[in-house]
């Protein structure tokens, strides 16, 4: 019995030692879940697409789709995120279309026209964006200061000047020669010898045609081309300015203007025609129905080259008749931005102006307008006889009074006044006095 007990104890000890000698199997250490790889860095997103509109009046080839589209394609190649849609306006319905868009809150982003619209009308009403930052570019710093001032209000730039021109007149050289009227002009300078010489020439041409055709039309159907009638009157009157130097009020009602209008009204061969405007007068001139045109410039010339070439007579550019240095209407054409309260569109429009003003495009833009540059870029018309002649008129630029307060009101009242003078509805003195009262009242505010 004792042996059995001893055997069992020994067996228990062996089992206990065996249990203690078994190696502990460690559980595998928990492993971290594999981390998802970060996505590869993507390129920064480009500018958001933006669509802007450009409305342009027909200033030379600025009114031609093929020309403007070429610039837009180059612009879009540089700024792929910007789309430019173009609307081509004319001078018959353009103002109404633009005013309707403005009133409906649908004004275009960019507009190409002169300061008489951009500055005297739209900027004066707070409708245009201040683009003074354009003067900080290399091109902007080179703009002629006098033109910059014309395109500014209170030192802020509201229109970027692209090109400039002179509004002149022209005569039928062959007709004047046949009538013996060339003795009254200075052919080399393209000026009249005097105001009296001008009237003498008109009389000779009228008599030569046996009074069967008029020589000159004071057109007054509306404001179209009215720079011609205004500067005919003011130069005959002795270069009288149309406004005060500050451009805050008009000074049309004066004795000199009244005498000039009376003399024109009394002259054989001069007609006050309420049925035509400047473009009509120029067409009648090209057709040989008039001996001279007061609405002529190089842009019109270029646009009517086919008709001019078809004629068997020579068109001869002239300054307006004056007893001193002729006072010509200078014209500037600019790009402005309507303030549509859209930062993205405004920025895109600013880029477009900067692009057109850049060295790579600017010369093309000026040539397309058929005018001169608004900064010094050298002679861009070398070998062009017409433009070389036209360049003679630049020193004759007078005051740019078309930015005078309430210019739009004055223009309408002016051609209405000319209609009344033509029909004899009052004397020039009384009609100009009434015009002064109307425009003075319109300047309030």
Q: Secondary structure elements and their pairing?
A:
Blueprint lengths: L1 H20 L28 E7 L8 H14 L3 E7 L5 H10 L6 E4 L1 H8 L22 H6 L1 E2 L2 E2 L2 E13 H6 L6 E2 L4 E2 L2 H14 L7 E4 L6 H11 L18 H12 L3 E4 L4 H9 L5 E5 L1 H6 L1 H6 L4 E4 L10 E9 L5 H14 L2 H11 L2 E2 L11 H6 L16 H17 L4 H15 L3
Q: Could you list some keywords that capture this structure?
A:
17 helices, 445 residues, D-Maltodextrin-Binding Protein, domain 2, alpha+beta, 8-stranded mixed β-sheet
Tally of structural domains: 2
Number of helices: 17
Q: What radius of gyration results from the CA coordinates?
A: 38 Å
Shape: globular
For the termini, the CA-CA separation is: 136 Å
Low-confidence stretches: 1-43
Largest sheet: 8 strands, mixed
CATH fold-level name of the largest domain: D-Maltodextrin-Binding Protein, domain 2
What structural class do the secondary elements suggest?
A: alpha+beta
In quaternary terms, these chains amount to: single chain
Strand content: 15-25%
